[in-house]
Amino acid sequence: MDEEKAKVCFVTTGATAPFTDLIKAVFKTEAVDALQKAGYTHMLVQYGTAKDVFEQSSLNALRHMDGNTPRKPIRIEGIDFKQGLKDEFKLARTSNGLVISHAGSGSILEALRYDVPLIVVPNDRLLHNHQAELAKAMAASNYLLEGNTDNLAPSIAYSESFKMKKAQFPPITSGKHRETEGLEAIMDAELGFQD
Amino acid sequence: MAPPSTSLLTVTFFLALLSTLLVAVSLRLIFILTNKRVPPPKWRKKGSPTRILIVLGSGGHTHEMFYLLRDLDTSKYTYRTYVVSLGDAFSAQRAIEFEKELEEREKQRARKESENGYPERKVELGGKGAEKRTPHVGPESYDIAIVPRARNIHQSLFTAPFTSLRCLLSCFPVLLSGTQQLLEPPKDGFEGVSCDLPDLIMTNGPATAVIVILASWILRFFDIKGANSRDKMRTIYVESFARVTTLSLSGALLLKVADRFLVQWEQLEGKGGRAEFHGILV
After folding, report:
1. In chain A, which residues have their Cβ closer than 8 Å to the Cβ of B77?
2. pLDDT number for residue A1
3. According to the UniProt entry, which residue ranges have a biased composition of type Basic and acidic residues (chain B) (predicted)?
4. Domain extent at residue B25
5. Tens digits of per-residue pLDDT, B83-114?
6. Cβ pair A190:B282 closer than 8 A
7. A191/B199 Cβ within 8 A
8. How far apart are the CA of A50 and the nearest CA of chain B, in angstroms?
């Protein structure tokens, strides 16, 4: 049997609030089809407290994929929560895969350090949230892709070609502030450390 | 003697006292404020002892703070105090890990230097070649100060002033002398700064930061331990990377107060006439 190369899509829903809409969104038939089309072999989902939602929707997705012959069904695994997702981000990175994440700034910052294509999905149900703003601004700078819970398939399909145009993060220079001084220079100036 | 006149006298006396105090306070505030707005570019020798105070907050703030400080040079920032809220074991843990990373980095640098037989050159534009640098890492170079929370999650707004006051009071000793109790007089300047007022306060907006900076202002106001005359406790506020178009509550409160107010999105540049944008810093 030919050993197929693994390609991992890691989905993280965050630690604070359960984000069931995202779990449902990644297992929608269109999204799963898009993942299969892009050659994904594994899905790893950090579902938080919403284990029942994860189990139900992943089951539906598996049933759907069974009918999707001749494609091999994607293997689905779940974790509830763990401190630090370093290994998971690395797995997505080394398998030339993808991360789909909630829009918390901590996850965004961590995922981007691993230089992995990232689709960020803001949680519309959170009140007073600035997550959508952040996701939009980051997407405008080509650091990541902004997705939504209604339809993730286009973002997944686009993520393949996005790998080529993804901007480096953290940026070395930015726009008109090309001669920008880093935080260290500002701290030095405040303390009077001068060259 | 008619009794009303004395009471009248008392009232007038207090009114006079009050207005005198008010004038004195405003004069003093104006003095400090105008003095601080123009940063005196005093020259400080690299490698001289400094103490910086880093205010940590809940998960997100703490994460961002350590991204901000990732390149911290311990040969310049020789002593660090991390302020952590009571019960926030995560932030305390992260501070310890961060210090271990700093230590490890210096060990690797030293190893490399001994292998090469010459100090690693730091190439800079207009560089002056390698300077002798002495890193300050390890348990003697930092401490973690724990203060009670200014406001607990879901705490009623009525009791918030009391808990904030308790937090404020516990900030004074942290600012004045830190948590390291020296049994003998400090043997050198580096030990000396560990129990002196911090030179710099770094924060990115947890509620505790507002209280810490308020405390620093009270000390500056009364010039306690030379807080103002020695130009101690300059403050740098970095608004959260998550704030794109609006400031956080802490940010709004500290916008006019921090010596340097940095934002990470261009949309916020110039807020309050002083928010600076130098690109994304995290």
Report:
1. 187
2. 40
3. 107-134
4. 1-35
5. 999 999 999 999 999 999 999 999 999 998 88
6. no
7. yes
8. 21
